[in-house]
């Protein structure tokens, strides 16, 4: 399995819509964490561009994209753009 860094970039104009979908989005990511796919996730907490960082473990980028496609934020069109990159980091488990 490989690790992947996923960056979500949000459109600030959709803040209200994201707030409405957030409970479902978080529940989905928590289910991936319980399944051992998602290692960490969270929004950026600064004054920079709105977005989030997710760390996942999957066999390839296509598998990551398949998981992301089911994210309620993605299904609702609330992620303006995203990137998926292989990540050679170290994670304490």
Give a short synopsis of this structure.
The chain has 93 residues and is α+β, with helices and mostly antiparallel strands. It is 35% helix and 30% strand.
Described by the principal axes of the CA atoms, the overall outline is: globular
How large, in whole angstroms, is the Cα Rg? 13 Å
Strand order of the largest sheet: 2-3-1-4
Tally of separate helices:
3
**What is the string of SSEs from the N terminus onward?**
EHEEHHE
Strand and helix map with partners:
Elements: E1 2-9, H1 15-34, E2 38-43, E3 51-58, H2 61-69, H3 72-75, E4 81-86
Antiparallel strand pairs: 1-3, 1-4, 2-3
Can you give a write-up of this model?
- The chain is of the alpha+beta class and 93 residues long.
- 35% of the residues lie in helices and 30% in strands.
- It contains 3 helices and 4 strands; from the N terminus they run βαββααβ.
- The chain has helices spanning 15-34, 61-69, 72-75, and strands spanning 2-9, 38-43, 51-58, 81-86.
- The chain has a 4-stranded antiparallel β-sheet with strand order 2-3-1-4.
- The longest helix is centred in the first third of the chain and has 20 residues, at 15-34.
């Amino acid at each position: 399995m490989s690790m992947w860094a996923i960056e979500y970039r949000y459109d600030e104009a959709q803040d209200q819509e994201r707030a409405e979908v957030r409970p479902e989005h978080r529940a989905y990511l928590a289910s991936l964490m319980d399944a051992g796919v998602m290692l960490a996730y969270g929004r950026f907490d600064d004054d920079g561009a709105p977005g989030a960082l997710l760390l996942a473990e999957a066999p390839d980028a296509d598998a990551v994209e398949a998981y992301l496609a089911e994210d309620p934020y993605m299904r609702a069109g609330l992620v303006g753009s995203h990137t998926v990159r292989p990540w050679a980091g170290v994670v304490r488990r």
